[in-house]
Specification:
The structure is a single chain. The protein has about 230 residues and is an alpha/beta fold. The chain has one domain: Putative cyclase (Glucose Oxidase, domain 1). The protein is built from six helices and 14 strands. Strands 6-12-11-9-7-13-14 form a seven-stranded mixed beta barrel. A two-stranded antiparallel ribbon has the order 2-3. A two-stranded antiparallel sheet has the order 4-5. α2 crosses α5. The two termini are about 30 Å apart.
């Protein structure tokens, strides 16, 4: 029987990053009208989410146009648990540990950083990151999406960073590879191959959206899907 592993980080009122806080409110409550209806606002790139190409590529399409088939399917897990604080991940490491990656896979990069440091300043300031050679490797190996449990762009830990300072996002999103960012629980995936399902909210024209992301073990997934609108 297939096993589902929830990789999504919970979102709570008052969380956030880059000065943008998550805000929950309940304008309709049991006390006032006998039922509950809530609203929320949040930065589209906080907690578990998917980047759209227009996050860094001007004029590219938004998250509502993301092909669903690129966000679900066969996945390959690359263990990088020895990559701790301030350690870059280079192409030669991915090549050595990712020989099981197939063209069209979703590539899962597991460092364990989110399990150790999510919710702490260290998650953003001190973690592992991708070397530009690693971004090139992911493009050349034909990944369709990449799952991260760390903040992969070194530049974003610097206050006031600009888009031109972020070569990893430009290389990956420019190749229409989707970033599935900030998951946890990757240690619960027991095999080098599994499947990933990542479904972001369909927010028209936006550069990213929160997503529920799960890994599925014990089930064969096709490389491609027929998707109907």
């Amino acid at each position: 029987m297939p096993t589902l592993i929830d990789l999504s980080i919970p979102v709570r009122h008052g969380d956030g990053r880059l000065g943008l806080e998550v805000a929950f409110s309940t304008p309709y409550s049991f006390e006032t009208c006998g039922w509950q209806g809530s609203s929320f606002s949040m930065f589209a790139h906080y907690a578990t989410h998917v980047d759209a190409p227009n996050h860094f590529i001007e004029g590219a399409h938004g998250i509502d146009a993301a092909p669903i088939g690129k966000l679900m399917g066969a996945a390959a897990l690359i263990p990088l648990d020895d990559h701790g604080a301030e350690k870059g991940i280079a192409a030669d490491t991915l090549e050595d540990r990712g020989r099981h990656v197939r063209r069209g896979d979703i590539v899962i990069l597991r460092t364990g950083w989110s399990d150790q440091h999510w919710g702490q300043p260290a998650f953003w300031k001190d973690g592992p990151y991708l070397d530009t050679s690693a971004a090139d490797w992911l493009v050349e190996r034909g990944a369709k999406a990449v799952v991260y449990d760390f903040s992969e762009e070194f530049a974003v830990r610097q206050p006031g960073f600009r888009g031109e300072d972020c070569p990893i996002h430009h290389r990956i999103l420019g190749a229409e590879i989707y970033n599935i960012e900030y998951v946890h629980n990757l240690s619960r995936i027991s095999a080098p191959r599994c499947a990933i399902l990542a479904l972001p909210l369909k927010l028209a024209g936006l550069d990213g959206a929160p997503a529920r992301v799960v890994a599925i073990e014990g089930m064969d997934f096709p490389a491609e899907f027929t998707i109907t609108a």
